[in-house]
Amino acid sequence: MYVGQLEFFNSHAPTGLKSFASALCMASISLGNYVSSLLVSIVMKISTREDFLGWIPGNLNKGHLDRF
Q1: Residue pLDDT, tens place only, 34-56
Q2: DSSP symbols for 10-68
């Protein structure tokens, strides 16, 4: 997806704005990474209790990613 998005920005941006388009592409991907890590943190906060490890514990063999 990253390559396709970068190609789109480079092919449709004016010559003087190609570096800005590349920076915008990388910023949108980094923002998506932050949002996904925030989502995982929220899910872990909700799903973790004293007797239940949650969906994404430290030991993935004991987790239930199939329920995520």
Answers
A1: 999 999 889 888 888 777 777 77
A2: HHHS-GGGHHHHHHHHHHHHHHHHHHHHHHHHHHHHHH--SS---SS-SSGGGS-GGG-
In whole angstroms, give the CA distance from residue 68 to residue 59.
Answer: 16
Q: Is the torsion defined by CA of 3, 4, 7, 13 positive or negative? A: negative
- Residue spans of the domains in the chain: they are 2-67
The conformation of residue 1, written as its DSSP 8-state character, comes to -
Q: Structure pTM?
A: 0.62
pLDDT at 39: 92
Whole-number Å distance between alpha carbons of 45 and 30: 23
